[in-house]
From TrEMBL:
Organism: Fusibacter tunisiensis
InterPro entries per UniProt: Cell_wall_hydrolase_SleB, Cu_amine_oxidase-like_N, Mao_N_sf, SleB_dom1
Cell wall hydrolase SleB domain span: 182-272
Recorded superkingdom: Bacteria
Domain Copper amine oxidase-like N-terminal intervals: 47-129
Protein name: Uncharacterized protein
Length: 273
């Protein structure tokens, strides 16, 4: 059916929808924290993007029809019609079904993020357990607004800067290792923070003289870590322990460490107490 016919059909629909919303979400993007309920919303296991907010980001146009109770999106010469409370989208080429219905909040229309990824042609992955949404290789970390709503397993009340700093170190030290190895490296940093023999902050541990040479690379403060390195840092902060008690690791065995201090080898790196 052609777009004009669908628009006529939509105009005669008067929708009345009751929606139950999830908690507000704080968005921490790399080292920037943004509280913007227009951008991202979570309801149950589904993550939504604000139709207008994303249109502003990508230079698209959105108009709203009170009569149709529908939003009209125009992007790159393509047209989309989103109804309130419907999973059906009218496009130039026909009707498309989204994973779930649109939702509204304070007059704003939210669309499943997976469909916005298709509209704006970006890659999108969401990890419900870790509250991480990855768009085009960049990482959005989704967390509750209040610290006391954090998972009870939260190990360390980290800042956005500490998350980025730890992710950078993990990226350089674990290189192309698996998420297991990357998390183990992050564990070592936090183990040191908690140990009386080392500085008691993430920054202090990472930049302690002679400990982590990659932290002194000129590019360290501008490095954009891989999504897996962000994930490993977040896992460690939230309490996941891959390797307990480890305070050191190296790509070759330490000559000054005894066999009793050795814990395990993870993908070529030796971890010690």
């Amino acid at each position: 059916m052609h777009l004009k016919k669908w628009i006529v059909f939509i105009v005669i629909l008067i929708l009345s929808v009751n929606v139950v919303f999830a908690e507000d979400i704080l968005i921490a993007y790399q080292d920037q924290s943004v509280v913007d309920e227009r951008l991202v919303w979570q309801d149950g296991e589904t993550v939504y993007g604000g139709l207008v907010a994303f249109a502003e980001m990508y230079g698209a146009q959105v108009t709203w029809s009170d009569v149709a109770q529908a939003a009209y999106l125009k992007h790159m010469g393509r047209n989309y019609v989103f109804e309130i409370g419907s999973s059906a989208v009218v496009t130039d080429t026909g009707l498309v079904k989204m994973e779930t219905e649109t939702v509204t909040l304070e007059g704003r229309l939210f669309v499943p993020m997976s469909y916005l990824a298709a509209v704006y042609d970006f890659d999108y992955v969401y990890d419900e357990a870790l509250k991480i949404a990855t768009l085009d290789g960049e990482t959005l970390v989704l967390m509750p607004e209040q610290l006391d709503e954090m998972p009870v397993s939260l190990r360390y009340a980290y800042t956005d800067e500490e998350l980025l700093m730890l992710a950078r170190l993990v990226d350089l030290e674990a290189r192309d290792g698996s998420i297991l190895k990357k998390t183990a490296v992050a564990n070592v940093v936090l183990n040191r923070v908690e140990h009386t023999g080392f500085p008691n902050t993430v920054e202090g541990v990472i930049f302690q003289k002679g400990q982590f040479p990659p932290a002194y690379y000129s590019s360290f403060n501008t490095l954009e870590p891989k999504p897996e390195s962000f994930e490993a840092a977040l896992r460690a902060f939230e309490g996941e322990v891959v390797i307990e008690e480890a305070l050191y690791f190296n790509y070759i065995p330490f000559s000054w460490k005894s066999d009793s201090d050795f814990i395990k080898n993870i993908e070529g790196d030796y971890f010690y107490r």
